[in-house]
Design brief:
Immunoglobulin-like; mainly beta; eight-stranded mixed beta sheet; 687 residues; 1 helix; 8 domains; single chain
């Protein structure tokens, strides 16, 4: 027990010293009269029980972790700020208590009335020169204090404020009430009359809060000249530098208003051309000029007292449609109330009608002339179709049209000018020329048949003639979309020409190639193992696309050396039997028989098959017994290594090294096998 008592005696002072002491870093402000709000900045305030200045306790208004707010009471005297805790007092900075401020007074306000946004001067005494220490209210609304001096405050009337006195509160000094203030109507713009016009034109601005003060009006940034003004209306001239946009009215001391609608600065419209200047009802007329704008709703077109229908418009061109019953007369154009000074004449041509046309038949491309009335003199304003297919109008006047016949079925013409439409009673008969789409096969020999595909051939053999380079080709089959002909003797390569009586002719886009006589005369060697290269001689071999078929194996590509010689490699899996040459047009040529033998034992190079004999060319070393892959096989020529590109049991494909001369290819294979080729001459590449 004695030990425990001693332990408590030793621990209690230590616990007391362990309590964190408050730290008062600074106070704001350091002096002021009774009523001053004092801010304490520091840390460890959570254990503070009382704050004093000298011997006077201060009421705490707000507690934050690092900031406390207290109020200096009446009767307080200067002294240090003391923080009282359970463990003692902690002395902070010194606060000087000054004399109380005099209560504010008001001598008057100017003006006594004004709109929201206007400025009011409150004249008196006892105001603070610090803006934030003056609080002003109007009918309960906080008012913005713009400037502050001890004898004058300038404030802004808030939006939505009601009439009544201003209440002025000065920190640590009290409050005072001003004489009543009347809130007038605010500056506002309700209407621009007219809302569009050129520079220099007169515009009336209607609204409220305009008169009795200095007024300025702006179109964008350009200031306008005011001709007269009342409280609700201002008449101005649009300035020369005005641009389309809102209008601003600035009333000194009463605020500023911006029009909710823009004023459109638009020049007086001017017409420089009208096409056509004559036509029946429904004709589309184009006006060209400037100042048209683009809103068809504000554009008016009148001809001889008859309103027209405006279809579309831009600033420099517009189109309208001639209304039914429009007489001949001057045209009047207005854009948003602005009238053009030009009045071009338009001639109404009356009802659209067709009295006849000629000729009444012919092939596509024939020019047909229509006689009648009500046509537009502008070709593009007349629409003509044949069996629904548009026809080209090549010439036009008020009483005649010239039209090029399209490729279309026979039928009546339909003419349209604007909304007026007429149809001819008599049809136009279109003669359809033949059309050649293609033919097959593309290569054929004498006596073979060729099928021509196309259209409009008819079915009468007596009316159809086919030729190639002027040589007639017998027709052995005929349908409207197909002709079958035979290749005659003496035919040479050329285009196929089809002629159909009374309809015209057509030629194929491609040429038919006439085959020369083809045959195989020799196959050497006649026997060998898989990988052996065989030579096939004959005549008429095509330039490309030749393949050779050995019995029992897939066809292999052949290499054409000349029109009389090709070479091919015996593929793996080939069996003894017939050899066939396959041509690119699907035909075949028998090439004799070939006996497949077993590959000889050992390793040997029996043949060199080069693409050329220059350094860098590809060559194939042919033989038997080859093994390994491209990394395991080494080839040298005159001591220079050659690049190995492919290795098979019967061939090694290499790239000839950059070493000219006469020598042999030395080949090293896996298993220490070496072999040499026959002699080969590498020549310098010509320059």
């Amino acid at each position: 027990m004695l030990h425990r008592a001693l332990l408590l005696v030793l621990v209690l002072p230590t616990l007391a010293l362990a309590q964190p002491r408050p730290v008062l870093e600074r106070i704001e402000p350091t002096s002021g009269p009774p009523g001053t709000t004092l801010t304490l900045v520091g840390r460890g305030f959570q254990h503070v029980q009382q704050v004093r200045v000298g011997d006077t306790a201060l009421a705490v208004q707000e507690r934050l972790p690092f900031r406390w707010t207290v109020v200096v009471p009446a009767g307080a005297t200067s002294g240090p700020v003391i923080l009282q805790t359970r463990h003692g007092e902690f002395v902070g900075p010194y606060f000087r208590v000054t004399a109380s401020l005099p209560a504010p007074t008001v001598q008057g306000i100017s003006p006594l009335a004004g709109p929201p946004g206007g400025e009011v001067a409150i004249v008196g005494t006892g105001f603070s020169s610090v803006l934030s220490e003056n609080s002003v209210f109007l009918a309960g609304r906080l008012v913005v204090v713009r400037t502050a001096a001890p004898t004058e405050l300038r404030v802004i009337v808030p939006q939505g404020a009601a009439s009544g006195p201003f209440v002025v509160r000065v920190a640590n000094a009290g409050e005072v009430t001003t004489p009543p203030f009347t809130v007038a109507a605010s500056t506002a713009i309700t209407e621009l009359v007219p809302p569009v016009g050129p520079t220099g034109s007169q515009v009336t601005i209607r609204g409220a809060g305009f008169s009795g003060r200095q007024v300025q009006v702006f179109f964008g940034r350009a200031r306008a000249q005011i001709e007269r003004a009342t409280d609700t209306e201002i008449v101005v001239r649009v300035p020369n530098r005005a641009r389309t946009g809102p209008v601003t009215v600035d009333v000194r001391g009463a605020g500023r208003a911006v029009s909710p609608m823009p004023f459109e600065v638009r020049p007086i419209p001017r017409i420089v051309a009208m096409t056509p200047d004559a036509g029946p009802a429904g004709t589309t007329v184009t006006l060209q000029g400037r100042g048209f704008g683009g809103d068809v709703a504000v554009i008016g077109v009148d001809i001889g007292g008859r309103a027209q229908v405006v279809r579309n418009a831009g600033d420099r061109a517009l189109q309208f449609e001639i209304a039914p019953g429009t007489p001949s007369g001057p045209l009047t154009l207005t854009v948003a109330g602005l009238a053009a000074e030009e009045h071009p004449m338009f001639s109404g041509t009356g009802t659209l009608r067709v009295d006849g046309f000629s000729p009444t038949s012919g092939p596509a491309g024939t020019v047909v002339t229509f006689r009648g009335a009500g046509f537009s003199p502008v070709p593009a304003a007349n629409s003509v179709t044949l069996s629904g297919v548009p026809a080209q109008v090549v010439a036009a006047s008020g009483t005649s049209l010239q039209v090029r016949v399209p490729s279309a079925p026979a039928g009546p013409f339909e003419l349209r000018v604007g909304s007026s439409v007429v149809r001819t009673n008599q049809p136009f008969v279109v003669a359809q020329p033949p059309f050649v789409a293609g033919f097959e096969p593309r290569i054929a020999g004498v006596g073979e048949r060729v099928t021509i595909r196309g259209a409009n051939f008819g079915t009468n053999l007596r009316l159809v003639r086919v030729s190639i380079n002027g040589t007639p080709m017998p027709v052995v089959g005929l349908q409207n979309e197909q002709i079958v002909v035979e290749v005659p003797r003496g035919a040479t390569r050329g285009r196929l020409v089809v002629e159909v009586s009374l309809q015209g002719g057509a030629a194929s886009a491609d040429e038919l190639e006439i085959e020369a006589r083809r045959e195989v005369s020799a196959l050497t060697p006649a026997s060998g193992f898989a990988g052996t290269e065989v030579t096939i001689r004959g005549q008429g071999f095509p330039a490309r696309g030749i393949r050779v078929q050995f019995l029992g194996a897939p066809a292999v590509d052949a290499r054409r050396l000349s029109p009389v010689e090709i070479r091919a490699i015996v593929p793996a899996g080939a069996a003894s039997g017939d050899v066939t040459v396959l041509l690119p047009n699907g035909r075949t040529m028998p090439a004799g028989t070939f006996t497949v033998t077993a590959a000889p034992t050992g390793t040997a190079i029996t043949q060199i098959d080069p693409a050329c004999a220059y350094p860098g060319c590809v060559a194939i070393l042919r033989g038997h017994g080859f093994s390994g892959n491209t990394r395991q096989v080494r080839v040298r020529f005159l001591g220079e290594p050659a690049r190995v590109r492919e290795v098979t049991p019967t061939s090694i494909t290499i790239q000839i090294p950059n070493r000219a001369g006469n020598g042999r290819f030395e080949v090293s294979l896996p298993g220490n096998v070496s072999v040499e080729s026959p002699a080969f001459l590498v020549t310098e590449r010509p320059r």
